[in-house]
Amino acid sequence: MTGITDSTFGLGVPKQVQENNQVQEKKTDLMEKLASGKQVNSAADGAAAQQIIDRLTSQVEGNRQAVSNVYDGISLAQVAEGGLDGINNDVSRIRELTLQAGNGSLNDADKRAIQSEISALQKNISQTAEQTTFGGKPLLSEQGALSFQVGANAGENVDVQTNDVVNDIASVLNVDVTTGSVNDALAATDAALETVGAYRAELGATQNQLASTARNLTQADVNSSAAQSRIADLDYAQASSQQAALDVQGQAAMSVQSMATQQEGQVLALLS
Predict the structure, then answer these.
(1) Where are the domains of the chain?
(2) Alpha-carbon distances, residue 203 vs 78, 82, 112, 145, 159 (angstroms)
(3) What keywords were assigned to this record (predicted)?
């Protein structure tokens, strides 16, 4: 009879133990989420969700680096345009001096004085073109393009053109009002101004393109971060509610287990 009694009254205890263990496992899992602030801490919490989170994380990080690249591109274009602005001013001054040299009342000494200033301006143009660099990259002394990755994916890039300004406006650097024709000198300065103006317009368009790209990337970063947060981040209010419910379940399970154990002991004592 004792064996039958043990079997009969012992069935409830393992069941309550099992329920209590399940509650404790859920509490442990919930505490991990509360500690990390994440709904998904590993693929075990949701394989599909983890994959989506990883993709969104990669997208967000890629967008942020791309934004940094874009602003570097804008800075580079601004440096190049600043150099062209200085060259444009120097060429404009050479044109003004050339017009002054066309005054028939000037003697040779007067023209030599004018040419002295023109020569200084020509030297300054060459120095500006040579010294306008960004991170060691020449911007106005070599023909080419510098490519910037402006997106998180392959093929999303913008090129900033560089130009060999000295070579392209060489005629204005050879202006000499003491020996040459004023008309030829004016034609050279006008051509140089047109060339420099075209380069500046191109850089301005590139800056606008990059600025627009930066705005789009910033918005994409906000959207991707929000989507990632909705999937990965824990709802603290809901989690706290779940924790309270699990505490109640745990206490109830322990109470039932204690009562079952106590009752079993009392019955066994009577039977013995």
Answers:
(1) 2-37+234-271, 65-227
(2) 8, 10, 37, 12, 10
(3) Bacterial flagellum, Cell projection, Cilium, Flagellum, Secreted
